[in-house]
């Protein structure tokens, strides 16, 4: 024992990966505020600039049993979304005959011909009451699952966590407020054959008096909704590395763009809705716009704030301080598309969903703007974030159009 | 405009409680706070130096569902930053906030909680103050609806909110920071700035901060600023609680 070599003092240097685990806050702070002497740019620990999003890729139509599906990967966060369509006959809706029988024979209902589908950029206003069907009858049913072993904190097979539930709610709410899916696409109509004498000779001329092909204005009088398509939108986050909402929403969007509904019609003899299995007869959904979500978080230099007496400056005073003049503990960074490591170190979150009118040529419309958990982001910062989200919209549009 | 009314400590068994009525949205919320309490499910590995904030929202007629989880998360985000969870006695313990809708419209599936959110936030704040939980700031919140014509309606009813083009909930701290913003529906940034300005006037009055650093409460078209209403509710309660002492002097 005594003959052993003189003990070398243990090395006090740590590899970066260990430092990141032991002192996560100091690790990220050191990356974002390098010493002036080192001449290094301020960069996040994952190598991105503060307003840089992760590499995003999308792939559609991977699941063959669904009507539409998509896999979206944002960095290491991966969301799989499948859209299944099921038929809801109006006979099964308890309140249907009472509340809708009068409006279903509505003569002024605008009929859209599937052949000349409205393009995405026309902003024609449908009857707003028409659109309430989706919400009233719950025709869109999104569900998000995190119990896939996507991250160490989520046990596979466990009941839905609060995060999964609130994400499901956010997606449903966003589907409703953006009115992304048109109610008209989800209706299955029935045109009773007109047996009146004046129509008899015309009937000979057009043998195929079919519900879906013949939709004149005068024959549209007695049209009836016989059933609805219900879209079950299931999202599985199979890998979670921060920012699940952006990935999940992009997956929903890509899957809905991919969704094809078979041609369906009411068969009078069997008194049921039947579908055509010809792929050529199926039609895609015509979505309203392309809302794209971007999330941000605010990293604050002041990790020890909680141990000291908290003195928060007034908002007015705080606005005086220019961002460049902020020093020491007051500094903060707004990080776009946070990964799991950054999410664990931040409390303030901003989520912005934007769309652009006329397929990108018009002005930016904010569809949803959320900010919570702190006071670093005010009007000025939000304006800058909306601009970043508008740029992100272009990127995501490009990605979704290619897949 | 009829302002909200609130009562502190209506419940005897809870550490702190508040009931809050907002006549314009028709909401009536009862809130209770228990703090600090031992939480059975708490894991020490998670932030051992801080208190855990738990929020439960109970709708009026139905069991709590997915949308309640979402609104609980929002309230937790706001309160979590304001509660000084590192004060003596709080680390490793829990602050449990329970909010129950007693009256008013209930929220359907997939509908937003935004019209109810300011009432829930105010109830939670008053209940926390009633339980003497240390806070770094107080706040006030409001909900605004923008109609198709571009008019801004303060605290819309459920029908107005359903017809509105966009709906915004903003919360401001007592020092004027924007604490929370929840906006949905189509709008542009100019519209939001107008909403922000109006909300700031509703919460803080038109002139924000006087030369001596005090917040001047000025009444305007929106009546008394909400921040002042909240302050007065607390002051009245303190006066009532300490009447014996004040009278003795």
From TrEMBL, chain A:
Taxonomic superkingdom: Eukaryota
UniProt keyword Acyltransferase present: no
GO BP annotations listed: exonucleolytic trimming to generate mature 3'-end of 5.8S rRNA from tricistronic rRNA transcript (SSU-rRNA, 5.8S rRNA, LSU-rRNA); nuclear mRNA surveillance; nuclear polyadenylation-dependent rRNA catabolic process; rRNA catabolic process; TRAMP-dependent tRNA surveillance pathway; U1 snRNA 3'-end processing; U4 snRNA 3'-end processing; U5 snRNA 3'-end processing
Annotated stretches, region: Disordered: 96-133
Main location group: cytoplasm
Keyword line: Cytoplasm, Exosome, Nucleus, RNA-binding, rRNA processing
Exoribonuclease phosphorolytic domain boundaries: 52-115, 138-262
Alphabetized InterPro entries for the sequence: ExoRNase_PH_dom1, ExoRNase_PH_dom2_sf, Exosome_comp_Rrp42_subfam, PNPase/RNase_PH_dom_sf, Ribosomal_Su5_D2-typ_SF
One GO term describing the cellular component: cytoplasmic exosome (RNase complex)
Single annotated GO MF: mRNA 3'-UTR AU-rich region binding
Bias (Acidic residues): 121-130
Compartments in which it is found: Cytoplasm; Nucleus, Nucleolus
Family: Belongs to the RNase PH family.
Protein's UniProt name: Ribosomal RNA-processing protein 43
Naturally occurring in which organism (per UniProt): Aspergillus sclerotiicarbonarius (strain CBS 121057 / IBT 28362)
Automatic annotation (TrEMBL), chain B:
Signal peptide coordinates: none
UniProt-annotated location(s): Nucleus
GO cellular component, one term: nucleolus
Major subcellular site: nucleus
Keyword rRNA processing included in the entry's annotation: yes
Any one GO molecular function term: RNA binding
GO terms, biological process: nuclear mRNA surveillance; poly(A)-dependent snoRNA 3'-end processing; rRNA catabolic process; rRNA processing; U4 snRNA 3'-end processing
Keywords: Exosome, Nucleus, rRNA processing
Family annotation (InterPro entries): ExoRNase_PH_dom2_sf, PNPase/RNase_PH_dom_sf, Ribosomal_Su5_D2-typ_SF, RNase_PH
Keyword DNA-binding found: no
Superkingdom to which the source organism belongs: Eukaryota
Name of the protein described by the UniProt record: Exosome complex subunit Rrp46
